[in-house]
Amino acid sequence: MQEKVKAADKNLISGATGDWEVIIGLEVHAQVASKSKLFSGASTAFGGAPNSHVSLVDAAMPGMLPVINAECIAQAVRTGLGLKAAIHLKSVFDRKNYFYPDLPQGYQISQYKQPIVGEGEVEIDVDGEHITVGIERLHLEQDAGKSIHDQHPEYSYVDLNRSGVALMEIVSKPDLRSSKQAQAYVTKLRTILRYLGTSDGDMEKGNLRADVNVSVRKPGDKFGTRCEIKNVNSIRFIGQAIETEARRQIDIIEDGGTIDQETRLFDPGKGETRSMRSKEEAHDYRYFPDPDLLPLELTMEFVEKLKNELPELPDEKKDRFTRDFGLSDYDADVLVAERESADYFEAVAKGRDGKAAANWVINELFGRLNKEGLGIEQSPVSAAQLGAIVDLISSDTISGKIGKDLFEIVWTEGGDPAEIVEKRGMKQVTDTGAIEKAVDEIIAANPDKVEQAKAKPTMIGWFVGQVMKASGGKANPKAVNDILKAKLGI
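-> structure tokens emitted (490 positions)
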């Protein structure tokens, strides 16, 4: 416990009456990757015309009974396994009762006391600190529809396309102590979901969003009263919402006020949170087991089969990259952040120097993709082409500088790197006789620079530049350096 308090010190927020600690827990809602909804066969495809993906069940027509989607159950179990969580072989669906226009049934089918997944954990690294974030539970529930208020001044509209879409609500323990930690946690959680293929984590489409619970306290005191900020839909906004709400609470307490437990909304335009409603308790929703759905019972064989089919997850992949390819933790983190990026790197690194491959993938490829606003799957340079460029450099066929020129050609024109080097005469000069001749000519033409270089050896860089210029950038840099050092007596 003492270590945990010590680790949290750097995350304290200064106030008029001293330092404050922010306590954060997150409820992340991730849309399950499934072609149909949790209790109906209606499509989950994004972007359909309003109310075009709605079954009689989703619209709560009288007499329509829910039928559970087996794939959604499997996806929830896969996610639980990926979070190193306990899988409950028996779980129960409950009715969570509340009224809202986009909830046609008048209740949401969710899970309360007996969720499908129990306690687990997510590992994150923030500013050199390794943090284990506890997972309280994962439960399945239906999404609601969408109310639209901005199309007509006198009316609101309801689109039920999302009604009944399967969500996994992943509830963390209050283990986070800063906005940066919360952002790292959601980023890592989204990466795990994508690796597992259980959710695409697309926050722009609303397929992953977070309810953020924030409270503040003096270090070592008991937890303060928390406020929940609903439906925050970007990593950046999660950080801003936490910092804004923590400061609001600190100011109120230091002015002699108290915090009301409530649900709030974050307005990124105004940079503020505002009250939405008083925070409901479980009894306000009158939970009870859904009478139309039997308890869900799984077999251990079913769970074990899914466990054995799990892909290699980000932490495991990072460990392997650092072990097998000799990568730094930073480089490995960058490469495993997206499964597609990790796969691309592995294809480039196969049978080659891992550090050289990582350098080209991270610095040249990712740098150019970011500049052009492209994803790895849109890269004009394939893993095979980039691997060929790395081979040409490692075999001294071309220099690193020529390699960058070659990368540009392949990016814009395509083609086989080895053929391009051959056809365009891009091979570097390794003939020491030719290099020595160029060195002799430059030394003879610059006697004053020779004396300067003997007095100040770093001046050799000027000579290297001149020789490279004279060779059109094709001279082998190592050979140039060695010959110059011998000729200048450095």
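The chain has 16 helices and 16 strands.
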